[in-house]
Amino acid sequence: MAKRNTFREDEELEEQINLHDILRIGVYLKPYMARVVRILAVVVMMSCIAVVVPYLTKVMIDSAIPTKNLTLLGELTALLAVLIVIFELGLRYRTVEITRVGQLMLKDMRRDIFTHIQTLPFSYFESGGIRPAFGVIYTLFLSLLAIWFWDKAKCSVSVKWLAVLVLCILSVFGDWAMFDVLYALTFFRYRENPREKWLTFSGITLVCCVSMLGNEPIWSGLFQLGIFLVIPLIQYCYNGESGSKKPFHKWFFYVFYPLHLLVLGILRWVVFA
Fold first, then answer.
1. Which candidate, 223, 269, 230, 264, places its Cα nearest to that of 135?
2. Which of 28, 106, 206, 212 lies at 20 to 30 Å from 197 by C-alpha?
3. Cβ-count burial of 174 within 10 angstroms (0-12 exposed, 13-18 middle, 19+ buried)?
4. Whole-angstrom distance, CA of residue 35 vs CA of residue 29
């Protein structure tokens, strides 16, 4: 049976160790300098023990054993045993603490990477094509312009379609490029004709799904088929009547949407500044 996710050869190091990168890692070592100092002290102590043990052994062989000085021999033996125990304890401490410091540094690095990723715009994660420079508010504004021009402009239908085309081209710099403008105009133009409205809506949605099939992963295009759920929701759950005329119901979301973005921006500045 073939083994998956295995690699039997070591990867070659393509880049040499960079001193600048080591200095950058030093920033993550700074909070744990007390631990590092203790580790260095233990290492120095172990080095001293490694030097003293052979010397004590020499004294035992050259002085204690030839002269049959049992007292000196016993003292040296006890001292050697104590030093060996201290050495082993120091070795265990050094191994555990070095591992712990390394893992704490990795934890801090991962936290900073995750924090930084959250500050990046969505366009950073998109590959290929024109990356949106503006949000969906920009595209909705163009959609309102398209509706206003179609309804109020005193010109021919061909000129209106040309204006809509220009607005669609401008919308590529925002989220839901082109499709948002076409959806809004469709609901406005065919608001009194459900059949034409849903046929046009379905055609735009199919084009949207097909245009997404070239992205990675491929299911991102199929995921857009969920847009068709709008048809039963609007057709059978909305009676076409205006909502409440109370000022609170009218203006709440106009205030809430920019206000909650402002609050999120302040929180981001406070937390990640």
1. 264
2. 212
3. buried
4. 10
